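A favour between colleagues. Tell me how you read the following sequence-structure pair.

===
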Amino acid sequence: MRSFDFAPLYRATVGFDQIADLMDRVLSNDVGQSTYPPYNIEKTDADTYRISVAVAGFAEAELNVEVRENALIVSGRKADEDEGRTYLHRGIATRAFERKFQLADHVHVTGAVHENGMLHIDLKREVPEALKPRRIAIASAAKAIEGTVN
């Protein structure tokens, strides 16, 4: 595993600590990250996204979708239904899971749907008006001087 020192970034920049923390988290957590359950992330429009998680065998009541501190946390815990059953082969994974997705600023969950063994979570980026680019009118020098008469 590679180790990166982000100290020079902290010394030379102001306000970018979230990016450095995110990179540090990704680099340190990726090694032991489970691949269960599989998922897709798709961009459905300019500012909308969909995360689809394969949750075959889980009922809606056994799934939990939560947003906490700019992180989307999807978890599932299967109720114990195996009492009295004897499996000759067990290939369908129904183990408990927790999958975390880091959300960018101004990205909000708009809904979640469970259908055909898939959990679809819709996201939308909603940038506040104050942060959107705006056009500034440029006045001529003559009008600017006239406007400053005392």
User: Anything to note?
Assistant: The chain is about 15% helix and 30% strand. Helices lie at 7-12, 17-29, 141-146. The chain has two domains: 1-33, 36-146.
